[in-house]
Amino acid sequence: MRKVLIAIFLLIIGFLVWYIFIKPNDYIVTLKAKTNPGTINQSIKLWSDNIGNSSIQQDDLYNLNQKIQFGDSIYNYNWNIKKTSDSTSKITVGIKDLNHSIMNKLSIPFGTTDFEKRTKNTLTDFSKKLNEHIENFKITIEGKSEIKSTFCAYVPMKGKQIEKARGMMKNYEMISSFIVQNNVELNGKPIIEITKWNQDTDSIHFNFCYPIIKPDTLPNHTIIKYKQLESKHALKAIYNGNYITSDRTWYALQDYAKKNNFIIENTPFEIFQNNPNLGGNELKWVTEVYLPIKK
């Protein structure tokens, strides 16, 4: 009996040492979302940028580390995202108060602390914004398709993914006016061709293209260039929603490619069927989104 009591005592001491001094988080929250990990990843970053006193680093698409300052405390949020089905994901957030971790661990088992309340309120705010975002777009995977060849006038740009639509709007009037003034005939809807996508930094190099009928003589412009877009086999999806967040479809197509054993090129291609300047219900805006398939 004495040995059993000693063993139990040592187990209790070992657990307390682990719980107070080794356990990496003070508190863990689990959330569920009806969307893909890429959308969640981008939503966490956007939310972090908008709450103030927050910084975030990404280990990979599924793991992020965020620091948020509340008064004299700095909270560390470790985000883990896991795809659980074709349409759902699980989000696990480990939270630690870097300044008062031991006190939190000692207090949490005996009542609801201010730390718990603040954490729940903060993550409830994130969950609400994520769900509002998910309701504002729709992605429909169509499967294997083809990007058709076309000749185009284009403007090369680079920046963050979220700046893509702003770059389009900035150059929309310039390209369309130039085409009209030089009697060049349009041959399709505006296109975004991503030529480089750094998923660690969310940065892209892209061409904003207008398909045109190639004239005998190409009018010169200091910014506008010309190129032939070649035909490619690709995976296709339809995105309904604001063009600012059409990149959510890129991640959905990546998931589809992985599930169906397609080897893809991470150079998305988008064709915009609606003019956002005309307004209207964004869920009725249509973007054809493609990810090229490697041969």
UniProtKB/TrEMBL annotation:
Pfam families: GyrI-like (PF06445). Residues 168-294 form the GyrI-like small molecule binding domain. This is Transcriptional regulator. It comes from Urechidicola croceus.
